[in-house]
Design goal:
about 280 residues; alpha/beta; Rossmann fold; 2 domains; seven-stranded mixed beta sheet
Length: about 280
């Protein structure tokens, strides 16, 4: 891979440029905000200009709702030979791309799974992170190979999924947990200051993602509404079951009674043990 066109010079787009430049890839930065493209160029992420001819791959690094029209525009302009994106929801994107007349044979949906706590571009932002790739049935092998090479050059680990499986997975591991964090944090608003002052590391861990951009996350959660709702329904059933058991304990005072509670805690510990660490083989 010699040339990459990055459309969108935000944190993710700029970080992709910084990562690729380490390997001698020529990167072009394209943004409707010329100042953002120049700022990314000043950081060393690439050249604030369009390529003279088609780049090997184009990275559409714009918010989810803009990906399909931006992709359609750049396919018509011939900015790159093949394309990928960085949106956190994939199945709706594929449908929207078709509706905009995009050529899906040159598209590999992409989703680098990094913390949105990153507020500044970094060349190592993707190191050891999973990066989902969601080719469709019509995706050409050239497009997939270029996307795989891009991910490897950025230091991430490719995870191949179909778009629907990807969206169910991120509902489980990211979208629904983030909403749960917001619900848990929101309950603090109506509590006395004396109660909030008792908050410790456990609550910080549980609510750690609640301070993300509300508009960004509302867009993503809405785009992935079905799978997220499925997760919430499952949690609601479990929560009501545990609440009934605990109500029984409160009435009876029988500390040996909460069998389901103990089972939930054991299952929680076992589930947490399945989460890969950055240095595990899944991330190398």
């Amino acid at each position: 891979m010699r040339t990459v066109a990055i459309v969108g010079a935000g944190v993710i787009g700029c970080s992709v440029g910084l990562a690729l430049r380490r390997h001698g890839v020529v990167t072009y930065l394209i943004d409707t905000d010329a100042g953002a493209a120049r700022a990314a160029e000043d950081r060393g992420a690439g050249i604030a200009a369009e390529p003279a001819g088609p780049a090997d791959i184009g990275v559409i690094a714009v918010p989810h709702g803009r990906v399909a029209p931006v992709l359609a525009e750049h396919q018509k302009r011939g900015t790159a030979r093949v394309y990928t994106d960085v949106s956190g929801v994939k199945a709706p994107l594929h449908r929207e791309a078709l509706a905009h007349g995009c050529d899906l044979s040159t598209l590999v949906g992409g989703h680098p799974v990094v913390s949105d706590g990153a507020t500044e571009p970094r060349e190592d932002l993707f190191e050891g992170c999973p990066w989902a790739l969601t080719p469709s049935e019509s995706t050409e092998m050239l497009a997939l190979n270029h996307a795989l090479e891009l991910v490897a050059l950025c230091g991430a680990a490719s995870v191949l999924l179909d778009p629907e499986a990807h969206d169910r997975a991120v509902a489980l591991v990211s979208h629904a947990p983030r909403l749960l964090a917001s619900l848990a944090a929101a309950r603090l608003l109506d509590e006395d200051e004396s109660a909030v002052r008792l908050a410790g590391q456990d609550l910080r861990d549980v609510t750690g993602t609640a301070d993300g951009d509300p508009e960004l996350w509302a867009e993503l959660l809405t785009a992935n509404a079905g799978p997220v709702a499925d997760q919430l329904d499952g949690w609601a059933v479990q929560a009501r079951t545990l609440a009934r058991e605990l109500r029984g304990v409160a009435r009876s005072g029988d500390a040996a009674r909460p069998v389901l509670l103990r089972e939930a805690l054991r299952h929680g510990a076992a589930g947490r043990a399945r989460i890969p660490r950055p240095w595990d083989p899944l991330h190398t």
